[in-house]
Design a protein that fits this description.
Layout (H helix, E strand, L loop, with lengths): L7 H13 L1 H9 L10 E4 L8 E4 L2 E2 L1 H13 L3 E6 L8 E4 H17 L7 E5 L4 H13 L2 E4 L6 H11 L3 E5 L2 E3 L2 E3 L1 H9 L7 E5 L13 E3 H6 L11 E2 L3 E7 L7 E6 H15 L7 E4 L6 H13 L3 E5 L10 H8 L4 E4 L1 H8 L4 H4 L8 E5 L5 H11 L6 E4 L33 E4 L11 E7 L9 E2 L3 H9 L6 E9 L5 E6 L3 E4 L2 E4 H8 L5 E11 L3 E10 L5 H18 L8 E4 L13 H8 L16 H14 L4
Parallel strand pairs: 4-17, 6-7, 6-8, 8-11, 11-12, 16-17, 16-18, 18-19, 19-20, 29-30
Antiparallel strand pairs: 1-2, 3-13, 4-5, 9-10, 14-15, 15-23, 21-22, 22-24, 24-25, 26-27, 28-29
This protein binds 5'-O-[(S)-butoxy(hydroxy)phosphoryl]adenosine (WT7).
The site of 5'-O-[(S)-butoxy(hydroxy)phosphoryl]adenosine has 23 residues, from α10, β20, β24 and β25.
């Protein structure tokens, strides 16, 4: 299989071909994979109908393509290099042959325990090889994996387990992150108190710490894996459109939704985009620093790299442990060729200066990638000049959980580079900018709503258990288009700069949260009667959360400190520490219209320290609250120094 385009002309040609005849184009790529049964229709349905399907009638198993297919040629090549949290602990190099065997063992054990095609399995795990193995084992037997980032709280975990109706949870006694340990198993126990569907819990022993094991439900993962030893584990034949996984992500309203991706289209697109964006060549060592709990880890730690027979690095720890040079030490240690991280991490490491970078030999680096949020120009230049020594192209990859794979990005060094611009679309991707009334904006440097005009193989198929929600969020706002929720601008050369969300989604350190979800967590605090949260620019996190909270009684200074702690604890309980508001402001009221809608626009201005132009406030029920909120905020966070 060779999916890689190797010149800008080849890219342009592929792009033209994909535009002229998308079926022909994707057929050519799909035919390089191993199918159990060929499809009879390349694509059916439409964006208008929100019922897009790919490779209809085809049968495939993504793991046969990610594992079995490589054994003859590169069985002994390293598939996964695992770098532990503690740099003095041994690394693990897992060959394609070993990975295949372990996935088969685990798959066979799951099958033997009664897990069937279509069953949902929750993975709430640290970044260990067992996480990747569990993901692949589920896919192998046709079980639908749903990885929940191990920083989510018991409540958030329970919400997702219930929504998915999962029967199995795979976890660890504890996770390790820097000097901290995370009590994963006890969080699972907590969550399961309200989840009646779960009958089996597998527990990886990561640390020496004890944990409670319920004899009729909990099994140690290593013992469980043994049950599959020597058993055959043929890949389950999956319809191209059968679900591969559910991944929960936040939206403007309500609880997080389960984005569904499939075996066929997702496989084709993640493999194709990986090969091209990172310009991966045989023998290269590729490292994406994301967690498999997010889509980046699914598509570009596990599936994309393994489908290409790549060597992919998995890192258990955090960028600053034991020191702020850890990323660079790992790059040097494993001679990393392609490095992929988030702007937030770049900005945080930038704050430590150049010495930690210069301390390591980074000459192996060829391509540097970023993902998750807009990258500011300063961070872009630092990444290019200091980390890449001006020798590596930056690929600023724009995409979403819902798109399954990278949509806008340079292809290694082939494409034009422009700071803070994701750039051109990948072949097969047709981005457009629309005005609020749906008119297409074609002029240079116009800002509009980023939409996609034609289907691509890894487009979201549904939101689990609620297709209406999927239609309303993505396909109905602009009929005939997929609506991204982002605002963007396109320059005269067609390079796109993604500016950020235009909806009530806040992107903190590249993690996505809905305002409604944070507010409902805050409102669980006894002190909170009502709340509204907005994002504001933050030098490291990209955006941070400012919470405006109406308390149940008036608070003096001392009480306010305690109340803040209550609010933080409520967010930690409802979602997890990752969603904690940076600022909590107790306010006498919220700026509501007569119809009861909160005017977030005003709160966003106040949180950004823009106190003069609030626009039209005549529809507010009580305009005086704006002044009160403004005066408080000014004296707390915007005191001139
Ligand atoms: C949102 C999607 C895609 C994997 C990680 C995030 C923002 C993502 C970029 C980028 C500007 C970006 C968008 C998008 N975003 N990449 N390169 N430049 N913004 O996935 O959690 O589904 O979040 O992240 O706002 O809509 P996600």
């Amino acid at each position: 299989m060779n999916l890689r385009l190797d010149s800008f002309e080849a890219y342009q040609e592929a792009y033209q071909k994909s535009a002229n005849d998308p079926s022909e184009f994707w057929n050519g790529i799909a035919s390089q994979f191993q199918w159990m049964k060929p499809h009879h229709q390349t694509q059916s349905g439409s964006l208008e109908g929100g019922d897009v399907q790919w490779f209809v009638g085809g049968q495939v198993n993504i793991t046969e393509n990610a594992l079995d297919r490589h054994l003859a040629e590169r069985g002994n090549q390293t598939a996964i290099v695992w770098e532990p949290n503690d740099p003095d602990h041994p690394i693990q190099s897992i060959s394609y042959q070993t990975l295949y065997e372990r996935v088969c063992e685990m798959g066979a054990a799951l099958r033997a325990s009664g897990v069937q095609k279509g069953d949902r399995v929750i993975l709430y795990m640290p970044m260990t090889p067992e996480l990747a193995i569990s993901v692949l084992a589920c896919a192998r037997i046709g079980a639908i994996h749903s990885v929940i980032f191990a920083g989510f709280s018991a409540q958030a975990l329970a919400d997702r387990i219930q929504d998915a109706g999962a029967s199995v949870v795979i976890t660890a006694n504890e996770g390790r992150r820097g000097v901290k340990t995370i009590p994963l198993k006890s969080t699972v126990d907590h969550a399961l108190a309200s989840c009646s569907t779960v009958r089996l819990v597998l527990v990886q022993r990561v640390t020496a710490a004890d944990c409670v094991m319920e004899s009729n439900r909990d099994v140690w993962l290593n013992e469980f894996e043994q049950r599959g030893k020597g058993l055959p584990c043929p890949p389950e034949p999956m319809d191209a459109e059968d679900p591969l996984f559910i991944l929960y992500t936040s939206g403007s309203t309500g609880k997080p939704k389960g984005v569904v991706h499939t075996h066929g289209g997702y496989m084709v697109y993640t493999a194709y985009s990986f090969a091209n964006v990172f310009q991966y060549e045989p023998g290269d060592v590729y490292w994406c620093t994301a967690d498999i709990g997010w889509i980046t880890g699914h598509s570009y730690i596990v599936y994309g790299p393994l489908l290409n027979g790549a060597t992919t690095v998995m890192f258990e720890g955090i960028p600053t442990h034991p020191g702020p040079d850890r990323f660079w030490a790992i790059c040097a240690k494993h001679r990393v060729n392609q490095f992929y991280t988030a702007p937030t991490a770049i900005r945080a490491l930038m704050a430590h200066g150049e010495d930690p970078v210069r301390a390591h030999n980074l000459s192996s680096l060829k391509v540097l990638g970023t993902v998750g949020e807009p990258i500011n120009e300063e961070a872009w230049h630092w990444y290019r000049d200091v980390v890449g020594q001006q020798k590596c192209p930056i690929v600023d990859t724009w995409w979403q959980t819902e798109t399954g794979g990278i949509m806008l990005s340079g292809l290694g060094a082939l494409s034009p580079q422009k700071p803070a611009h994701a750039g051109l679309p990948l072949p097969g991707i047709d981005p457009v900018l629309l005005s609020a009334d749906g008119t297409e904006l074609t002029g240079a440097d116009q800002e509009g709503l980023l939409c996609i005009r034609s289907p691509w193989p890894s487009i979201i198929r549904t939101t689990y258990g609620d297709h209406e929600r999927c239609l309303n969020t993505y396909f109905r706002p602009f009929p005939g288009f997929y609506f991204t929720g982002d605002g963007a601008r396109r320059d005269a050369n067609g390079l796109i700069r993604v500016i950020g969300r235009v909806d009530d989604v806040i992107n903190v350190s590249g993690h996505r949260f809905g305002t409604a979800e944070i507010e409902s967590a805050i409102n669980q605090a006894t002190v909170a009667l009502e709340s509204a949260v907005v994002g504001y620019d933050h030098p490291i996190k990209g955006q941070a959360i400012h919470a405006f909270v109406i308390s149940d009684r008036s608070l003096d200074e001392v009480e306010m400190e305690a109340a803040r702690k209550d609010v933080l604890a409520a967010v930690e309980r409802g979602i997890g520490k990752i969603a904690k508001p940076e600022r909590i402001q107790f306010v006498p009221g919220l700026p509501k219209t007569r119809s009861g809608k909160i005017m977030r626009r005003i709160l966003r201005k106040i949180a950004s320290g823009e106190f003069d132009q609030f626009g039209d406030t005549s529809t507010l029920l009580d305009p005086s609250v704006v002044d009160a909120i403004k005066t408080q905020a000014q004296s707390t966070w915007f005191v001139p120094s």
